[in-house]
Write a sequence for this structure.
């Protein structure tokens, strides 16, 4: 039977394919008592599950891409060691035999006992290893309960027709699937500006989130249509519907192909205003997509993705080689490397425990200042990479001048250390700050006096201005880039940069939304940075725009406070 689900379209496009269900990260288990005669069979079932999990993890290790971080294999080796540890294998078997309980319950009880021991450890790094125990146990539980797991997509018959169906997906999950020929993905949870949604747009694949019940309603291998433009998912479509969407899919592909004609064109408005179009990226291997899109540089290299999907931290040499590879690949074009922005929905792989509200907790520059050795390691690596091309340093989530002063002291300390070690670096490396907190936008003039440039992170700026958790789909409808307060903070920051003679960029999702391109041009933005997949659509809008003619309408839009009128004015602006 055909039916449709409605959610939030977070990445445009239309995909038609087979559903591939991904299990929830945590498995709920029941508790029941066994007859004495059934206990040996239950022990055997548990041992078989351990063996199946072992083979699954060995297969996963064989699927590691060549350019994956070297530590990923070590991460899997550690999980294999945990799986073979007597505290898992032997103690769980003992609980089954002594308590005559089912294997799932015994394993869960043993997991809880082990994680409780980890909680007593003072060292934060060792304490955080409890998560590895939990992840291994969850793998075994999925085998015991017969739930579909995250199988490597290369094992599927037609991976290019695969549509992932999950309760939720983390940014780390997205990195795992980044090299797979994935058609689309849909999730029960999530919002349009979560980092997972941002990564989906970076992959250029359709995605719909906040569907609530997709994971429970859709079955493995069912045909589904994902319409990322409208936020609609159609399950087991009828032939007429399928034909209609195949036509829409072809039209979408044709439009994308036409855009490639302007790849080599200069981003100049009809009245001759030059615009810089840079790209955002997450991992060194993304540089090919940046160059393919015709970007003039990298406006945001999210360095924290080097730290995900691993059990340890990358050292200075690993980071240096990663940054250097990107800098050299860009061949003289600027590369803006943002320091660690871990926290919120990108969890640190070591001892800091998640706060009650991670978005307001120890994240980004706060985390780096609390971990000076970690920060120094990264700063040294970035500075060393600057000897090989045009590198710019970007500091995330600054909220006060006190934080900025501490940060600049750390930068100077890293420079002094490299000078003492005789290692080359760019002594004039530009240092910029991200305006993501309303406090920073209100103080943009002061920040501009101490920095070489500013970059507005609109995703977090909107989140903090409107008090909306951007990964919570329950309030996603309140997330509004056109809110008058948000637009005023963007305008203030752009004016502060102009007054100080410092360039200001926008590297948040607003920069990559072609519907907002003319509005940003009218506000005075001349430096855009976005995912490579969005660049040509934004360039098309720039080539069709006349800045002087935009100004009167933009001023009217800024003065307006009625949401319905705002949409009407935006439509006129884009007409």
């Amino acid at each position: 039977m055909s039916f449709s689900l409605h959610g939030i379209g977070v990445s445009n496009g239309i995909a038609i394919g087979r559903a591939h269900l991904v299990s929830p990260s945590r498995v709920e288990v029941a508790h029941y008592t066994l007859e004495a005669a059934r206990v040996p069979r239950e022990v055997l079932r548990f041992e078989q599950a351990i063996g199946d999990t072992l083979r699954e993890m060995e297969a996963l290790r064989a699927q590691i891409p060549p350019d994956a971080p070297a530590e990923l294999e070590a991460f899997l080796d550690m999980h294999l060691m945990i799986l073979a540890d007597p505290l898992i294998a032997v103690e769980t078997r003992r609980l089954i035999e002594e308590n005559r309980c089912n294997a799932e319950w015994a394993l869960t009880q043993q997991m809880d006992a082990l994680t409780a021991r980890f909680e007593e450890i003072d060292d934060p790094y060792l304490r955080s290893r409890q998560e590895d125990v939990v992840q291994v146990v969850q793998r075994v539980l999925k085998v015991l309960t017969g739930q579909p797991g995250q199988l490597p997509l290369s094992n599927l018959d037609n991976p290019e027709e695969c549509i992932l169906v999950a309760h939720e997906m983390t940014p780390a999950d997205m990195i795992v699937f980044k090299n797979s020929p994935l058609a689309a993905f849909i999730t029960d949870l999530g919002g349009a500006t979560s980092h997972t949604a941002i990564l989906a747009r970076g992959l250029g694949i359709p995605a719909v989130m906040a569907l609530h019940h997709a994971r429970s309603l859709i079955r493995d291998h069912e045909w589904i249509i994902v319409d990322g433009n409208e936020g609609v998912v159609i399950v087991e479509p009828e032939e007429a519907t399928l034909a209609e969407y195949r036509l829409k899919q072809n039209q979408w592909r044709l439009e994308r192909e036409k855009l490639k004609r302007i790849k080599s064109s200069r981003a100049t408005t009809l009245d001759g205003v030059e615009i810089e179009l840079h790209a955002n990226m997450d991992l060194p291997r993304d540089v090919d997509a940046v160059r393919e899109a015709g970007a003039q540089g990298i406006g945001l290299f999210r360095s924290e993705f080097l730290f995900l999907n691993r059990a340890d931290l990358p050292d200075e040499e690993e980071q240096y080689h990663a940054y250097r590879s990107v800098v050299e690949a860009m061949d003289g074009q600027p590369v803006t490397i943002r320091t660690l922005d871990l926290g919120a929905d990108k969890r640190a792989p070591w001892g800091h425990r998640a706060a009650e509200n991670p978005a307001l907790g120890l994240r980004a520059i706060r985390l780096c200042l609390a971990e000076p050795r970690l920060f120094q390691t990264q700063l040294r690596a970035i500075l060393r990479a600057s000897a090989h091309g045009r590198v710019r340093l970007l500091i995330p989530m600054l909220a006060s001048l006190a934080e900025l002063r501490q940060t600049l002291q750390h930068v100077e300390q890293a420079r002094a250390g490299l000078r003492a070690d005789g290692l080359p670096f760019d002594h004039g490396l530009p240092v910029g700050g991200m305006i993501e907190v309303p406090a920073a936008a209100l103080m943009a003039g002061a920040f501009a006096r101490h920095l070489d440039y500013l970059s507005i992170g609109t995703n977090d700026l909107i989140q903090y201005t409107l008090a909306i958790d951007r990964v919570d789909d329950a309030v996603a409808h309140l997330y509004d880039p056109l809110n008058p307060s948000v637009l005023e903070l963007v305008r203030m920051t752009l004016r502060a940069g102009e007054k100080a003679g410092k360039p200001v960029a926008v590297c948040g999702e607003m920069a990559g939304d072609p519907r907002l391109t003319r509005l940003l041009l009218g506000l005075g933005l001349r430096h855009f940075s976005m995912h490579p997949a969005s660049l040509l659509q934004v360039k098309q809008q720039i080539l069709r725009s006349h800045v002087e003619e935009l100004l009167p309408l933009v001023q009217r839009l800024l003065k307006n406070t009625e949401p319905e009128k705002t949409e009407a004015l935006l439509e006129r602006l884009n007409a």
